[in-house]
Amino acid sequence: xxxxxxxxxxxxxxxxxxxxxxxxxxxxxxxxxxxxxxxxxxxxxxxxxxxxxxxxxxxxxxxxxxxxxxxxxxxxxxxxxxxxxxxxxxxxxxxxxxxxxxxxxxxxxxxxxxxxxxxxxxxxxxxxxxxxxxxxxxxxxxxxxxxxxxxxxxxxxxxxxxxxxxxxxxxxxxxxxxxxxxxxxxxxxxxxxxxxxxxxxxxxxxxxxxxxxxxxxxxxxxxxxxxxxxxxxxxxxxxxxxxx
Amino acid sequence: xxxxxxxxxxxxxxxxxxxxxxxxxxxxxxxxxxxxxxxxxxxxxxxxxxxxxxxxxxxxxxxxxxxxxxxxxxxxxxxxxxxxxxxxxxxxxxxxxxxxxxxxxxxxxxxxxxxxxxxxxxxxxxxxxxxxxxxxxxxxxxxxxxxxxxxxxxxxxxxxxxxxxxxxxxxxxxxxxxxxxxxxxxxxxxxxxxxxxxxxxxxxxxxxxxxxxxxxxxxxxxxxxxxxxxxxxxxxxxxxxxxxxxxxxxxxxxxxxxxxxxxxxxxxxxxxxxxxxxxxxxxxxxxxxxxx
Amino acid sequence: xxxxxxxxxxxxxxxxxxxxxxxxxxxxxxxxxxxxxxxxxxxxxxxxxxxxxxxxxxxxxxxxxxxxxxxxxxxxxxxxxxxxxxxxxxxxxxxxxxxxxxxxxxxxxxxxxxxxxxxxxxxxxxxxxxxxxxxxxxxxxxxxxxxxxxxxxxxxxxxxxxxxxxxxxxxxxxxxxxxxxxxxxxxxxxxxxxxxxxxxxxxxxxxxxxxxxxxxxxxxxxxxxxxxxxxxxxxxxxxxxxxxxxxxxxxxxxxxxxxxxxxxxxxxxxxxxxxxxxxxxxxxxxxxxxxxxxxxxxxxxxxxxxxxxxxxxxxxxxxxxxxxxxx
Lengths: 244, 292, 327
What we know:
CATH topology of the largest domain in chain C: Rossmann fold
Number of strands of chain C: 10
Number of strands of chain B: 10
Strand content of chain B: 15-25%
Largest sheet of chain B: 6 strands, mixed
CATH architecture of the largest domain in chain C: 3-Layer(aba) Sandwich
CATH superfamily of the largest domain in chain C: P-loop containing nucleotide triphosphate hydrolases
Structural class of chain C: alpha/beta
Radius of gyration of chain B: 21 Å
Oligomer: heterotrimer
CATH superfamily of the largest domain in chain B: P-loop containing nucleotide triphosphate hydrolases
Strand content of chain C: 15-25%
Distance between the termini of chain C: 49 Å
Strand order of the largest sheet of chain B: 6-7-8-3-9-10
Number of domains of chain C: 2
Helix content of chain C: 25-40%
CATH topology of the largest domain in chain B: Rossmann fold
Largest interface: B-C, 46 and 45 residues
CATH class of the largest domain in chain C: Alpha Beta
């Protein structure tokens, strides 16, 4: 359910055009964040990695996009103004998208996300899309990311300890030295995959056939409320858009 | 009637040579033995003795190239009953990071029962019981990478217990753990064996652990070299040495002293027994220990 | 010859974040050249973190570490740090080259050595771990686990380290492999005077090889000293989650009944000698018919005054004594 709602929200973000719609969406996000107990400050901090890309986008758009000013003249200042307006829109969209996504991932465990995705994509099974296998692969990737990261760090440190030049030189040269880290990492990952496959088989895993789940996804009241809120948002959004 | 959980008749196994042609090395050669229900058996052997291959045979991960392996009477070669075999004989591997698949402890323990197609309530019950058996009931929601090695191994054991196996095979499951974690796991295994009647097959190269078993099987280059109660097996020092093995420390010490003419009992396994025997000898409390 | 001195060294992982974790607290330790230091502790006691300070991978969050007196961040220390070779846990996981030769030679990259000298050093390193030259052109991935591990260790030895630091080098190996690797390392110390720092939770390994022991518990030093001093401090060991070696435990049990016994012993050989010594000291109060002596022959050793019973008298009225072990 959450995934669906998030998808709807993101669609609305893309469709938004004009200040009132954006304002509505922002108010909605803030409210949702407060309700979820996620302080907005933390969400904003979480967007810091994307700051660079946002600024870059703004800069490029401000200069490159040529907007037709309202009075039809190709006056420089109005061109710039159009560019800036567009940039602000892009920034707002990015911000809303990221807030929406981070709300989803911070309030849902990866397990439930996987289950949700698998459930949503189940109809695709009819078209022989390996939904279960894909979901299992993603879940295992989640499980092993910390393990592999630790392994990569260890291998990196081991090679740096051995070779005098491993850690030095310009960034380009350093990037070229990824073989001593990547090869052992991959070899280790394959070995682990092999052992894992054996362990899974020994616990009677044979694919999705005949498999049940301990956790069943269920529809709760909170889900109903959220769905209603999203419906209301969509309705309001549509009104504003068509009224303009 | 005491049931034989594991029976092997003239089992052989050869790994295919690296180039895929011709007979490879014989990992197991004419292995015929049986393990009774409720036994705690230790299988020891040096590098290349075939003990890991043996474990994989019992769990039906490998099929013998000759002979038969029967688990609770079912032949492991019978493809129809493959999953039945794996249900009965569950395996725990050496590296917990290569067998834990769940993103949380509970999820991983549920993996086995889920594969068996059980109802969700039944799965939940089994997960709860399994975690209780291994003492991890408070860690249900913990991600495995935050646990220590010993606790991870306990989770692995719970994962197999949730399938309610008759027999638990541990393939050097304590090799990577520190002494306290190892002791912990051995205590758990003994409790499972004694209280829940689970047959345990413990593959190990730690002789002190093997000394805790009901029976020890020594493998050497794919053959059964020795078999019997721990004190019987470890007292045959020269045969063990031929297989590249040595007994527990105190047994070694007693062998050195016996070689120098001291009359001490053979096959002494643990510190307490050894201390008692030595005190008797050194304080002259014993009578003549033998006659010509 | 390189000495390493740690003074009130502490280390915190992820400082300033909610995941902050103190791994080492207030460690003061001197590693003298030519010694074999054993660092014992459970998993998670801080051994690995401590070892990573010894070759400069980690910098202390407080306190200092000095190499031959030079603090770690100085230019002089950096050259000295290159002389510390660190062998990680499961070192075979870092093999990556096409041949054993190339993998070992990786340790010499950037040192500017010519091809002949490199070849000599690689061969020497390989021999030092007990592998022959036939392994040089083989792929490291085709070797057995124990062989891979030795190749990985050779990859560190090729740098001719003054200090060799090993993080559980025998973990997961069978007893024979374990013994072989550690014997080679012990030989390195004897023959080349390499300082060895061995982190392990196997007390038997420490008993066999270490001249000095440091026990870590929760990032602190719980107890330190000679093996004898540390092994007999049972309370400190137990609180650190360890136990004395089995032989030491045996000797300590014997000491309850036999106060003269030396309970600081930790190896089978020493224990056998000690027991024989105590036995001889006790004299022959034994009744044992020994075929080495003719019937009735009296052993000339001095006996203690423990009485022997009437059945000990032979028909000629003399006393039959046991032959003692030293006869």
